[in-house]
Amino acid sequence: MEKRVTFNERWLPYLLVGPQIIITLVFFFWPSGQAIYQSVLIEDAFGGNSKFVYLDNFIRLFSDASYYASARLTVVFSFLVAAIGLALSLLLAVMADRIIRGATAYKAFLVWPYAVAPAVAGVLWGFLFNPSVGIVAWMLQGIGIEFNYVINGNQALLLVVIAAVWNQISYNFLFFLAGLQSIPKSLIEAAAIDGAGPGRRFWDIIFPLLSPVGFFLLVVNIIYAFFGTFGVVDALTKGGPGHATNILVYKVYNDGFRGQDLGGSSAQSVILMIVVIALTVVQFRFIERRVHY
Amino acid sequence: MVENRPFLTVLSHLVVLLGVIVIAFPVWMTFVASTHSQQTMLQSPIPLLPGPYLFENYTKVLTEGYGRVGSTAVIMTLTNSLIMALGVAIGKIAISIISAFAIVYFRFPGRMYFFWAIFVTLMLPVEVRIVPTYGVVANLGMLDSYGGLIIPLIASATATFLFRQFFLSVPDELTEAARVDGASPMRFFWDILLPMSRTSIAALFVIQFIYGWNQYLWPLLITTKESYYTVVMTVSRQANVVDSVPSWNLLMAMAMLAMLPPVLVVVFMQRQFVRGLVEVEK
């Protein structure tokens, strides 16, 4: 889409677009280029000297069992975050959509977790499940479950998933609710007249009509689980115990800053960039479809 | 509703109410913990109702911080967070509204290149290219500065796209009228376009303010001086200190203070917030 009426100026447009282009070049293209450049270099332990090693960093990465472990973990983690988050928020949205009186009040009480920083969300949930003072850990102990996320890897992963879902649920809820409210009431009424009960109406009419929103949210949630959960992981588990919560985006940081393995970390950055670009392309294609929908 | 099913209505209320309670529970416990003494918070089970130390705890963290060597008064970290959040929100809106204006309202050589250069930055989060971005900022001598905290985060395409979308929907007649009346492009921008974009700006501001406030990894990496610490990073950093007896009451008071400003923004600007979320994703 283009404007028919435009202004004729020689230098002004460059001046206007300049600030953003400069910032993009300096803080986006330069570091991204560096990441690609460093991913084919190896630096010795004392810095300074670096050597061109072709794709050795990538080969090393792909023959590293811990990288595969981290990749597998990330897939499991994002699946859990997306599945649990979408299911819960869909349930809440469908129920909230049924409520006529007090719906706005409920909405106000459900949207605010979005505003809580992931790192702070991690601290809150870590406090609830803290092995010595956490109230939920204490209650679980009361019913015979020993919950200690500091030493138990699976429980640590579960806790990170819970905190991540909690942080994202209001986002999903708002989009599902908007989707539900845009479904024409006449469709629902027609089905009701034909004798379809609420369950039937949900599965045969509402659910298919919500699928574009659902698919969009799925991509957003996967991107969120891949990259947005860094703060949750860092505040709760720091990737541990062992490597139980060492997801890819955390590994990039861990290897680069703590392990000082710049080449390996950059190679991981490059792979993650490709993943984001792929996900973004998927999302854009879908959005184009949604326009025609 | 299409029919009256009292049972389902009651069920809906119950489910949503349960959801609200479960979602609010962590914050309730945080609040409760922030109102007790350190002793109370070291015995399990901890109380479920607020205690009498509210003012004491909050005053202490605001003025002295966590009360240990290397801790920073929260009033200072809150100020830094505010500067960072406002800087990110205003900076992003400012640079993207003018670049969207240039791309939509002018024809100039290289326009499409600029457009695509901005486009590819879409959705590539700073976490992914964190190591090299740190290197660039260090090379530029921007560690431990507000510029270093803010400027790398305003390189993003979402706002530019939002404004571009909006400008494309502005009727051409307005531009024509302005040109006939002899208004310069900047005059048109200030007097017509900017006032018309008010709601988009407000919506974007809410989203970007929260985004800036909640940054964690970036301030953690590039600040080494306490005077630049932000509140979110200090909360998380203190939570990870395991050396001595934790002061849960003070830590949780800090967490409450770190959450409060963005949550208030969302609650009081809910309409703009929802609009912003939906529009940013369009």
Helices, strands, pairings?
The complex is a heterodimer of chains A (about 290) and B (about 280).
Chain A (H helix, E strand, L loop, with lengths): L11 H27 L2 E3 L6 E3 L3 H7 L2 H34 L4 H9 L6 H11 L6 H8 L10 H29 L3 H9 L4 H31 L1 H7 L11 H11 L3 H31 L1
Antiparallel strand pairs in A: 1-2
Helix pairs in contact in A: 1-12, 2-12, 3-7, 3-9, 5-7, 5-10, 7-9, 8-9, 9-12, 11-12
Chain B lengths: L5 H28 L20 H10 L10 H32 L5 H9 L10 H10 L6 H5 L7 H11 L3 H9 L4 H12 L1 H16 L3 H6 L8 H9 L8 H21 L1 H11 L2
Helix and strand run of chain B:
HHHHHHHHHHHHHH
Largest sheet of chain A: 2 strands, antiparallel
Total helices of chain A: the number is 12
Strand content of chain A: under 5%
Shape of chain A: globular
Say what oligomer this is.
heterodimer
Sum up the overall morphology of chain B in one term: globular
Q: Which structural class best describes the helix and strand composition of chain A?
A: mainly alpha
Query: In sequence order, what are the helices and strands of chain A, one letter per element?
Result: HEEHHHHHHHHHHH
Structure description:
The complex is a heterodimer of chains A (293) and B (282). Chain A is built from twelve helices and two strands. Chain A is 73% helix and 2% strand. Chain A has a two-stranded antiparallel sheet with strand order 1-2. The longest helix of chain A has 34 residues, at 65-98. Chain A is globular. The model of chain A has no long low-confidence stretch (mean pLDDT 83). In chain A, a hairpin with a 6-residue loop joins strand 1 and strand 2 (50-52). Chain B is built from 14 helices and no strands. Chain B has helices at residues 6-33, 54-63, 74-105, 111-119, 130-139, 146-150, 158-168, 172-180, 185-196, 198-213, 217-222, 231-239, 248-268, 270-280. Chain B starts with 5 loop residues before the first helix and ends with a helix. In chain B, 46% of the residues are buried. The chains are: A mainly alpha (293), B mainly alpha (282).
